[in-house]
Specification:
alpha/beta; 8-stranded mixed beta sheet; 8 strands
Amino acid sequence: MSAIFLEQAIVHYEVMGRGRPVLFLHGWVGSWRYWIPVMQVSSSTFRTYAIDLWGFGDSAREVSRYSLEQQLNLVDSFLEEMGIARLAVVGHGLGAVLAILYARRHPELVDRVMAAGCPLSTESINPRLRQAAPQELAEWLLERDPLADTVRLEVPKMDPKAIQASVGDLTETLLTGLLKDLKIACLLVHGSDDPAISAPRPDQLTDLPYMVHTVLFEQSGHFPMISEESKFSRLLGDFLALDSGDSPRELQLKEEWKRRVR
């Protein structure tokens, strides 16, 4: 276990591999651990980092740190402390929102973002996400899959107030403006059966900037990186292989991937 002190509090992180940096940010349910399989694949070419946000995993639990702004400051402080710049960020749920917000705040530092299960409006967020206890959320969102146990093991460490505070900060203005005028490559990934965050509506897709593209995982719920880990890792690999400044609009789930995993 690796940890550093930021703002006089402990932040847990893990790192694998060598190469250009990629930061993984977890969502509202779980911790850094469910990124392990994807990080292991990516670490053959990239130096991959994952952190536990405030109130999750083995990072500090303090209510005053749970707002979106404070979580964003955590990402900023971590990257500055580790001397990481010009990186790719991969986020899920809460982590997806933070990844895009950080990219908007520091476009000179973020080369590209892959955002899984990112809400684009308040109506796309199931109210149960903010109201239910962590254990209930885990049972609601996780399939009966051995890989899902990595999330279930982390549930007791989660502070419910960390979920409630960050979801409560998601205003319609913030979400509708999240992708507006985004200049870097952004790949949105959604599970078609996600009960927590619904996929974008057709009218939302038509309004996406040229540098933003959406891929739907038709056999996934809230955790496509778990339920369809092989496809997710391959798509991420193709996305990271794009030349800097290229749009991800040509990326698709390839037919051979679909046949291989059925």
